[in-house]
Amino acid sequence: MIRSWRLRQTKSVILIGKKQKKQDKIFIMFTGSLHITILNGTLIHILVLGIFSFLIAMALTPLYTTAAYRWQWWKRPRTEAWNGEAATVYTELHAEKHKRNIPTMAGLIFIISIAIVTLVANLHRSQTWLPLAGMAASGFIGLIDDVINIRGTNGIAGMRAKTKFLLYSLVGLAGGWWFYAKLGVTHVYIPGIHEIYIGVFVILLFWLVVIATANAVNITDGLDGLAGGLLTTSFMIYVIICAVEGDYALAALCMTIVGALLSYTWFNIFPARFFMGDIGAFALGTALGIIAMQTNTIYVLPIIGVVYLIETGSVIINRLSRKLRHGKRVFLSSPLHHHFEAIGWPEAKVTMRFWILGQIAGALGLIVFLVGKY
User: Fold this and answer.
1) pLDDT above 90 as % of the chain
2) What is the C-alpha to C-alpha distance for residues 107 and 114, in angstroms, rounded to an integer?
3) Is residue 366 part of a domain?
4) What is the mean pLDDT of residues 95-114?
5) What is the DSSP pairing of strand 33-39 with strand 2-8?
6) Taken in order 59, 283, 79, 222, is the CA torsion positive or negative?
7) How confident is the model over 154-171, as pLDDT tens digits?
8) Domain range enclosing 128
């Protein structure tokens, strides 16, 4: 049995005013249409993978928490800001939270559950190999970073920034090479211009998108439930985009990620039981960037991920302001979520309002995708 949905887009709109019984009636004519046909079995497969991912992640959580508390995988808060100065505002805001021991590296839970579901039921060379491999590689680097955070003694509490950038760059360039050489992608889509041939430079574009997205997601992961909720929205939007594009295996992977993230967020909402750590943030940020490249929708990624963009921008603005204005800051603390905490917003309020912004941005990004491509 086949289900068929018909979407109508406004390519051109004609408004006709007609007066009848002292009332104005507006008739809107839509031109241009998008037809989506998907088999019942395909749709059920996509949804079932998300459910199984959720259930596997829930089943793995007690195993993780047992190991985390036994071996004391406590998140160690940073004592230095990105510029080397003391992170005084951050320390004051989160001193009470870090009085209790909160384990990190919970990204292990959803990476394992996503990998199990995908390897068993959704392995597709042209659609799921690359994002799964990129997620696993970035997760491994993040795991090393988290171990250093747990066992190290330096104030930054983790791997050196230059080392991380080099390692993640290797992941991005390797993925870009596969994207170009094995999948044969040489064009990028720009609305209004359509396909632009960039040839081998697609590798550099791939690297830039993946590195930027992974770092932006990692920067955003700073409050209980914040990154989990935002990423759930982002990947849910990409479930729809992939389905519209006919990339059903990729849609199923996105739904698998959504299912695992819902399980994680169940425990990560305020007050958090554990944190995803760099293993989770960098893995999912990498996967999100790769999926945007695979669907040729990098033009909507900054819209769908506008909260990540703003958070990263706030860090850059504060850093530049300190250098150019003799130590003066634009924001009390960065990323931006800490600024709102500093002016008195409770942590849960900041998180939920950022979730709302992420959901609105996701809907807007979906509209731009449909209008720009169809």
Assistant:
1) 73
2) 11
3) no
4) 88
5) antiparallel
6) negative
7) 555 678 889 999 999 999
8) 39-302
Are 116 and 256 a contacting pair, CB within 8 Å? no
What is the domain count for the chain? 1
Q: Is residue 2 part of a domain?
A: no
- Say yes or no to pLDDT of 1 above 80: no
Side-chain-facing half-sphere of 219: CA atoms under 13 Å: 26
Alpha carbon of 58 to those of 69, 112, 227, 251, 262: distances in Å?
Answer: 17, 12, 18, 22, 9
User: CB–CB of 113/134 below 8 Å?
Assistant: no
Q: What is the mean pLDDT of residues 123-143?
A: 97
Neighbours of 356 (CB within 10 A): 13
Query: In angstroms, rounded to a whole number, what is the distance separating the alpha carbons of residues 160 and 254?
Result: 31
Residue 320: inside a domain, yes or no?
Answer: no
To the nearest whole number, what is the mean pLDDT of the chain? 88
The whole-number average pLDDT for the span 172-182 is 98
Q: What is the pTM of this model?
A: 0.89
**254 domain residue, yes or no:** yes
Burial letters 131-162, b for 16+ CB under 10 A, else e: bbbbbbbbbbbbbbbbbbbbeeeeebbbbeee
Rounded to whole angstroms, the Cα distance separating 109 from 61 reads 7
Q: How far is CA 174 from the centre of its chain?
A: 20
